# Entry
Amino acid sequence: MEARMRAITRVGTGQPARLIRLMGMVSFAFLAVGIFLWAFGKNPVRAYGEIFQGALGSTYGLTELLVKMTPFILCASATALPARIGLINVGAEGQLHTGALIATWGALTFGDLPRGILLPFLVILGFAGGAIWGSFSGALRTMVGLNETISTLLLNYVAVLLVEHYVHGPWKDPASFNWPFTAEFTEAARLPTFGSSRVHFGLVFALTAVVVLYLVLRKTRWGYEMRVIGDNAEAARRAGIPIGRYIVLTMFIGGGLAGLAGMAEVSAIQGRLRPGISTGFGYTGFLVSWLASHHPIGIVIMAFLLGVLALGGDMIQINLGLPYSTVNIIMALIFFIVLGSGQLKKMGA
Amino acid sequence: MRKRTKQTRMPLGVVGLIVVFLVSFGILLRGATAQEKKVPSKDEKLKVGFVYVGPRDDYGYNYAHDQGRLCMEKKLGWVETLHAENIPESADVERVMEQMIRQGAKLIFPTSYGYLDPAINVAKRHNDVIFMHAGGFKTAPNLGTYWAYIYNAMYLSGIAAGKLTKTNKLGFVAAHPIPQVLGNINALTLGARSVNPKVETHVVFTGGWYNPGKEAEAANSLVDLGVDVLTQHQDSPIAVVQTAEKRGVYAVGYHSKDLQKFAPKGWLTGASWNWCNLYADLAKEVKDGKWKGGHRRGGLETGYFELAPFGAAVPNDVRDMVMKKRKEILDGKYVVFQGPVKDNKGTLRVKAGEKPTFERIEQMDWFVEGVVGTVPK
# Structure
């Protein structure tokens, strides 16, 4: 187990030189896809132009980029915090769904409460929904040694099915003619947005999470102890650091952050719970966190990059008639090249 | 230890470098595209946007809309279309519509039911753009809806199915128990029972519009149950039609007549959309400033859908029988769901001699007599 934990942190070794290499590798992925597009008779420069212009070319694009980045950052943080002690949390997607589910329960049950009470309550519920789901995997890891990669991944499916059960069954809007979604939230249960854009308060949660994560990891004893566990679990155990408690706690907080993303998605964007609230935010967040070596600031940058790609996917469809999967191919290539080269380096070292 | 602590530090310089890298990349490429975008052509074309929930080549719901788009584009020289496929009914669809508007779209077809609320949101922000939503029941000053009563074609297909079934069991793989789907199940059953009162329809709900694996599984278990005609209401009808052919039972198509090629032996007929004329009409209205909102609905007479061609398995007398009924419907002599219609619990839902309004059919939440099972609530 320790060997695995060490291997994980090794991949995440972050130094300035590594970052420059990272950018090089990202560019390489872009180049590879460019050749691919060119081979199919599409102009790669134009395709990338559309991608970047879609996200960065207008105020609207920029606000939508922030909307997209919000769940990316929260789900990446949910991956990054447990990764500090060598845990692989693939479960942000499920934690997002349970967060959305519990927050929806609150919104449907207490919709008449005044906004000042209801909204903070929903935020707590959303956090709790994800946190319970995450700490469940953490507890399984400490108590029976069940690998958290497996349990978080499998619990994702359970969480999505739970949401489907409630929207198809008990919570279905009676006025929806059997369409699977809940009734609309009351105005008091809607998370505020900024101006006329769809940028919502969830962005504040995301940025706060990143800053707090950074400070805790850098400046506190907890951060230090987590680093020790991540570097050498055996040494940490001998030094009397309560590893089990850290496992449950990081999964609790990480899950909670993903749960917040789910809460924000139903409360700010959708205004109701329905299947498909997340277009793989949890998995993209996982990707973001690994690309950023689980570094809080790196997460923001990588969320930005993948956000641009995700938005650009629409543009190359609309303007070039390229399938959306082009963007998925770019993302997958980046991931493979970046992580693959990390592995190669490790083997060579 | 010292080396490790460095790990969390990311010097500002590096962050700056990345930002500079990305921004310059963006600016560079923006310049590149700006050059490519020519001045708009002399005679301004009407830009029309289409948003699809699934892939355009599903030979089903999205395929039918896309065929309509392509045909309209061909028919009207002055139209230019934009399209986006695989757009989930999530937060994404608002952005896709906004981006189409930014590209100059003046008429947008959000073709999936779940796009209704997002489309209304976008419509509020852009009152110079017209939206036509497929199947919705809400409108806005610049948002109307369109739909056609394709269950008429399902009724006619039911006649062929009722004549040809030997086990007297029809199988229906359905997505969600919504009125449009229930209407098709009920119409098929009524059609079949009009020629063969022993027919029962068995229904499996998959709980999703696009899940070929689950659909094939459902089709297989229906065949195991003794069903010898399979049909479906899914966005992606290929799975069920192929399973039918593989298991040697008859298939009734839905959404697209082009499905026939997946069941050369077992194909009976089916219900097939034909959105071309409606899309062309709407584009003309928008261009001439004559578009009026509201709900646009119609039956067989509109040509917005049609009975798919018969397969080799259908004998001539059955074909004549179906075509005779088709004419009766066209002439208004017969109305599908005209009374008396009982539900499968024995309650009289439509009184004798009564012709239910479209509003009532669009709110259907019961199975007709002959369908096995209860509507999931």
The CA atoms of residues 203 and 285 of chain B lie 41 Å apart.
